[in-house]
Amino acid sequence: MTATDFPTGLLDLTGRVVFFPVRHHSPAAARLVRELITRLRPGMVLIEGPADFNDQFDELHFGHELPIAIYSYVQFEGGGRTSAYYPFCEYSPEWQAIQTAREHGIAAQFIDLPWAESAHFRLSAHRYADGEFRTSPYIDALCDTLGVESFDALWDTLFEIDPSLKVEAYVERCHRLCHAMRTFDERDSPSDRAREAYMAGHIRRALDETSGPVLVVTGGFHSAALFERLQVNSTDEPNRPAPTIEVRGIALTPYSFERLDGLAGYDSGMPNPGFYDLAWRLGDGDVTAEVLAVATNDLRKRKQTVSTADLIAVETTARALANLRAHARVWRLDLIDGVIGALVKDELTAGGAHPFLDALYFALRGTARGRLAAQTSLPLLTRDIKAILAEWNLEPTPAERFLELDLLEECHRAKSRVLHRLTNLGITGFDLVEGTNFLTREDLSKLWEKWRIRWTPEFDASCIEAAPYGATLAEAAANRLRERIGKEEVSAQRAAAWLITANSMGIEALSEELFGLLAEAIRSDGDFYGVAEACDHLVHLYRFDEVGSAQANPAFGELLREAFERALWLLVSLTPDEGNSKNLTDALNAVIRTFTLCGERIGLDRENLSDTLHRVSAAGWQSPLPRGAAAGALWKLGEADAEALERDIRACATPNHLGDYLTGLFALAREAAQRNPELLSTVDGALLSFTDPEFLESLPSLRLAFSFFTPREKFALVKALPGLGDDRLAHSVTRLAVSAETAAKALAFETELFEKAARYGIRTDFPIDEVPQ
Predict the structure, then answer these.
(1) What residues does 250 pair with on adjacent strands?
(2) What's the predicted TM-score (pTM) here?
(3) Neighbour order of strands in the sheet with 107-112
(4) Buried-most residue among 154, 171, 344, 628 (CB within 10 A)?
(5) What's the CA gap between 286 and 31, in Å, rounded?
(6) 374-380-386 Cα angle (round to 5)
């Protein structure tokens, strides 16, 4: 096929097969396909849509509130899921073809290759998108020729703006446009060939089944290819081998203008559905006045006023632009440019638009949300979710309610598991607002949760669109978590966190899988911090999890011992840079906690722990933070060597090392430090050895080190220092009238001043009662 080979037979509206090309979600196409069906009265109407929905085709005639979509989903053997949407709104030509055919008693059916058989082509998940138009060099050139900015403006100019456009003119323009784009751009992908071969087969069968004309309603991109296949009786091309499908399904789901909006991410779909919906409903009426009325009401709801003069200016400017552009009536871009030209005085930035422009875009998008008729068939998962919610009195209602759960009560634990499964699956309307966090475990004194439950417009859609994950809530929640796990790099910390998540959902089969995954991750993970955090998670599950079933698993002890030993091995292997991490003290605390809480029960090796800590604390090449933390851990365990500690403190008694060493020491041995005067004396001696400049240099890290103590504990530490009498103590703890930073600057100034005074022989060491007056 070349650019000059336009098949004029496409334009014949009296032939045996009539091809009506559409842009999905085009009001002009929707209006004219209704007109053509009413005039032609074909024997059958064939529509681009998933052929595997034909068994449920009658459901499209239920009393739905549009927009809705056909949702098709697939799960491949061995894992992997994919899904696709076929959205419909009132002005979709496919929807009007379906409804008009029914009004006249004409058989209608979908003819496109089912998603389950085409998903391996990696097509757009929105099957009524029009991305091919937006990436076409031919369309770009045509836009330049006609002086419009985009394909949307081009389509409006050629098809939407003129309300008197006739069927014949529309069909010729659209066929020629799509044929030229496809041939000039040389687009002929394997997926297009497979779909068109499938559709051509449906058309041939329809010709055999009916004596009247057959009307084919498809995207204009496919019309010429389908026409040629029928002319030469082309043999259907076999599809490329596809993965084996384990589960497939198809159902209706609610949709919304927000999801339909091309400007909001609908895979290059029709922009501003609210505008085109108004255009459809008003016919050749004045869309501008309606849009401005919606925008004005929205501004008033935001407590912002818009004057009559502003509205007149906008409408006048928009009409002038429409006349300048030779538009038959004011259209979408005329209105947007009219607002910008009449009201926007400053440069528009990404950070914020003009209030009126915001309101206009809100009106252009629209707020419609679909709702399915009550008798619509639902996927098994949706039915299971609704049955479970009814069983546990968790059904969402428009009135928001809060539910507080005591996790020590079995009935409340069961509800909690249901709610965690729903949130993990992405079902809207269920939010955990307060309660125990089993990942951070900041407060386990009360095991509880507080949930907010409320119906949202997305609730039904989220239930239906979760169907690819399984037929029951438990199965779907487990598969959803498996999918999330499959997208992340496995580590000991992540695997342990996933295990807690599975535990909160009460899915024991998944817990067993994660248990094996965690065991493999621990053996291969080279991150001390991650393995230490995994130890912390496992200690919680093994010793203190009163709401799950982990304690009953005898293999937990062996896994915890393996994680503990791995953490010790990685601790010794830390490089100085790795040891400087601010998380080191938390990680080492987790390792010590593992030993103190579970060591006797699972037989952890105390000698190995003590030897590891001694090696780290004495490693002269290591950073001061891990050395101090290891020394603190030894004090905490009662394994410290006072002489070795004194030696290490003196070795680290430099301005840039001592604070870090003490930070590690106090983080692990805060209580032990308060009970050991010898340790305090050694620290005091190290500090007294600093000159004033050295002390000032070390001050920030020293303040961090002593931040582990409360004010009362700091007072006790000072009081415990030898030779510090009550008078000196009272003077030393006097509250500063300025900040510590200001005091430090003052000390630095005084030190410099006294040094200069001494240099010039000025005496500065007078006792306070001998200062000259």
Answers:
(1) 72
(2) 0.81
(3) 17-22, 214-219, 44-50, 107-112
(4) 628
(5) 17
(6) 60
